Amino acid sequence: MEDKPHEVIVVDSNSTDDTKKLRDRFPIRYISINERNRQHARNIGVSEAEGDMVAFLDDDVVVHRDWLRYISEPYSNNKVGGVGGRVIPYGKSDKFYVKTSRSEVGKVFNSGFVVGNFDIPLNNPREVDSFIGCNMSFRRDVLQEVGGFDENYLGTSYRDDTDICMCIKRLGYKLIYNPKALVWHKFKGKQVGTEWLYWYVRNQTYFYFKNFFIQTKITFPYFLRYTFLPPRDYVLKSNVQIKVEPLSVVNILKGLRDGYKAWRRFVTTKITLKTSRERE
After folding, report:
1. HSE of 128 in the Cβ direction (CA atoms, 13 Å)?
2. Can you give the residue ranges of every domain in the chain?
């Protein structure tokens, strides 16, 4: 007998395809919003969810028949705040993975560099620093405790998944990668240009300053090194081909500036809110 989810919520973030037709074909809760912001959509989903655990999937993944059981299992430990699973290309055997020079899974360094390796078929669950956004879950009350997903991650939303994981770990909860919670991803790789580079640098910069800079300023040179010159096998594994265009350098520098400015606004907002609460 296959496990069934308590509820399935689809938050349509102003899509231009036929997403709304899903409500006529499947027993789902369909919510439509005007904002094209993935984090806002996730936060809406969390606020509407009724279950104790909330799982997030991309619209182009196919889950293993036992996925729900394995993504739920580690929650028997009250210290576990989130569980993520394995992701491999659609059509590949469950033995498939791309070997790299690093064996870590979901490892976040204080330079802001992240090693994913979420395709590695480990034998047992492992505690990690981060999950991949297309196959992750969290306790709903923990998500609410950290204030939900940070909606300052814009554009491609790059690093929003790692950020929420960092927030939850700071509360003292464990994050568990369970390789048996498997999904197949229909992502076939893509060639990206100037706009993608801008959002990559902008969001990576915001992530680094928000999570690491204040505590470890000496890592800034390493942040620059790994942001602009990541390991070659890391790039190959992502299956993203970067097309360098005349405006690429300009947009990269703009991304650095805007990511830093977004962090400064974030800090200012936190200070303002803290001051207001102290005066109440």
Report:
1. 30
2. 56-185, 190-274
pTM value is 0.91
3-state DSSP call for residue 257?
Answer: helix
Alpha-carbon distances, residue 246 vs 15, 55, 140, 203, 212 (angstroms): 31, 41, 45, 21, 32
Tell me, what DSSP letter sits at residue 16? S
Give residue 176's identity as a one-letter amino acid code: I
Question: How far is the first Cα of the chain from the last one, in angstroms, to the nearest whole number?
Answer: 54
Contact yes or no for 142/48 (Cβ under 8 A): no
Q: Does the pLDDT value for residue 82 go beyond 50?
A: yes
Q: Structure tokens of 12?
A: 């349509």
Amino acid at position 267, single letter: V
Cα–Cα distance, 167 to 129 (Å, whole number): 10
CA distances (Å), 4 to each of 21, 181, 182, 250, in order? Answer: 22, 14, 16, 49
Structure tokens at 116: 């994913």
Q: Report, at the CATH architecture level, how domain 56-185 is classified.
A: Alpha-Beta Complex (3.90)
Residue 60 or residue 280, greater confidence:
60
Which ranges of the chain would DSSP assign to H, the alpha helix?
22-25, 38-48, 67-72, 140-145, 160-170, 194-208, 220-228, 232-238, 248-279
- Cα(275)–Cα(145) distance, rounded to whole angstroms? 20
- Encode pLDDT of 251-260 as tens digits: 999 999 999 9
Tens digit of each residue's pLDDT (9 = 90 or more) over 167-196: 999 999 999 999 999 999 998 767 778 899
Dihedral sign computed on CA atoms, order 57, 203, 155, 197: negative
DSSP symbol at 21: G
Helix (H) or strand (E) run with residue 126 in it: strand 126-127
**Token pair 């520098």 is at which residue?**
253
Tokens of 139: 């306790």
